Amino acid sequence: MKCVDDFRLCFGKHELVPIMIGGMGVDISTAELALEIARLGGVGHISDAMLPTVTDRHYKTRFVKDKLRQYKHIAGNPDKSEVQFDLGHLAEATRLHVSRTMQAKRGNGMIFINSMEKLTMNAPRETLRVRLRVALDEGIDGITLAAGLHLGSFALMEDHPRFRDAKLGIIVSSLRALQLFLRKNAKLNRLPDFIVVEGPLAGGHLGFGMDWAQYDLRTIVAEIQQHLQAEKLEIPLIPAGGIFTGSDAVSYLETGCAAVQVATRFTVADECGIPKKVQQEYFKASENDIEVNMLSPTGYPMRMLKNCPAISSGIRPNCEAFGYILDTNGNCSYIDAYNRELAAHPDARKISVKDKICLCTHMRNYDCWTCGHYTYRLKDTTHRNADGTYQILTAEHIFHDYQFSTGNKVALPTQY
Ligand SMILES: Cc1cc2nc3c(=O)[nH]c(=O)nc-3n(C[C@H](O)[C@H](O)[C@H](O)COP(=O)(O)O)c2cc1C
């Protein structure tokens, strides 16, 4: 019986364990997690989501305070079009996070950055350009283009000296999205180095509508494989979403996939950014506690635990300090929903917004508990402590379980 370790992900002559840990913003896939995965010979991800606030937390910068001070005068104003990111600050935050991570890297693996197009930041092109290019400047091994079609993203890096040497890939959830991307970038004469095919069971935002349950990862992967074969394109395919055991992974590697991308199992790793108390909520969840909803102001469906504090919270929009989801015109659908409730309940001390969540504030505070479909199986991957809590795992244990397990089994950690 084969295990994942019988396969290798090859980027030219560089061979890796074919396990990629998906990017999880905001700082859920931490530098510590990515570094551990690289040490173990796989591919880890950091994320470029909300980096100014992430570096404030880790490196004592003051980007959020400074921005808040600059825009405080419009705090009560529903029009946020004035709120702009200082591109120099954004570059500095990206530089800090990427350079410190890459300097600490050990081992044979790689570290990529997950770059989200939907972080429109009231200036989509300019802010994405900075994030992509500074990550390349600071030596990131690769970039995974996520949360969006990214039709113009390669062009934003085209004249960068590392455009052809860094590993650049894209996440798609359909053949159509891939075809659009390839067509749009044909003239750049540079194919993606890898394609992550993300199915409907993934965590975070989904590249499907609310009819996500009608789709299935294996079918989408097979369609894309056939297309690439017909077009004689040899691009490594990396399925993601619901790959919970080493055997699940092997079943994709045996059909010619180059690697797998996984995330949910690592949400309960010690190195993951989710606070320890919240990790217990992930362990405790049953299937009925998880839903896919349209609460994210990005307009994409998102999967999360129903009991997370973000849902129905009526927190005041914090765009002066954050503002990562503001579209080109300075709008965010949470601001509209919040103002509607405020107008409907002028005397209330506290309001509740049920149809949208303030994604920036709640992701920043780990109050939006986004998760993969199989989160309810996490409790089967560890021991229950005497006090009823679950034992947190190490990333090494989870990684090795994916790498070496067979027979659909999940190895439990050493009990302490
Ligand atoms: C908590 C969590 C946060 C995530 N955040 C992001 C993100 O910020 N960007 C992204 O492209 N994918 C995100 N994902 C998706 C993962 O990178 C990955 O592709 C997917 O979850 C793999 O499926 P699995 O969780 O079933 O293993 C997230 C997943 C989880 C579980």
Summarize the structure in words.
The protein has 416 residues and is of the alpha/beta class. The chain has a domain at 4-269 and 390-404: Alpha-Beta Barrel (TIM Barrel). It has 13 helices and 13 strands. It has helices at 31-39, 51-59, 63-71, 87-104, 124-137, 153-157, 175-185, 217-230, 246-253, 276-284, 333-344, 359-364, 395-404, and strands at residues 9-11, 14-16, 19-21, 43-47, 110-116, 142-146, 167-172, 194-198, 204-205, 237-240, 260-262, 290-293, 302-305. The strands form four sheets. It has a six-stranded parallel beta sheet. Strands 9-13-12 form a three-stranded antiparallel beta sheet, with no helix packed on it. Helix 1 (31-39) packs parallel to helix 4, helix 2 (51-59) packs across helix 4 and helix 4 runs parallel beside helix 5. The chain is globular, with a radius of gyration of 21 Å. The chain starts with 8 loop residues before the first strand and ends in a 12-residue tail after the last helix. The mean pLDDT is 97. The chain binds flavin mononucleotide. Flavin mononucleotide binds at residues 22-25, 28, 47, 49, 114, 116, 146-147, 171, 198, 201-204, 240-243, 261-264, 267, 370-372, 374.
The CATH class of the domain at 4-269 and 390-404 turns out to be Alpha Beta
Radius of gyration (CA) equals: 21 Å
Low-pLDDT segments, ≥5 res: none
CATH homologous superfamily of the domain at 4-269 and 390-404?
Aldolase class I
Strand order of the largest sheet: 4-5-6-7-8-10
Element string (H = helix, E = strand): EEEHEHHHEHEHEHEEHEHEHEEHHH
**Tally of DSSP β-strands:** 13
Classification by helices and strands: alpha/beta
> What small-molecule ligands were found?
flavin mononucleotide
Q: Could you tell me the mean pLDDT?
A: 97
Classify the beta-strand content into a percent band: 5-15%
CATH level-two architecture of the domain at 4-269 and 390-404: Alpha-Beta Barrel
Q: Biggest sheet: strands, sense, closure? A: 6 strands, parallel
Count of individual helical segments: 13
CATH fold naming of the domain at 4-269 and 390-404: TIM Barrel
Instruction: Kindly report how far apart the N and C termini lie.
Output: 31 Å
The helical percent reads 25-40%
Morphology: globular
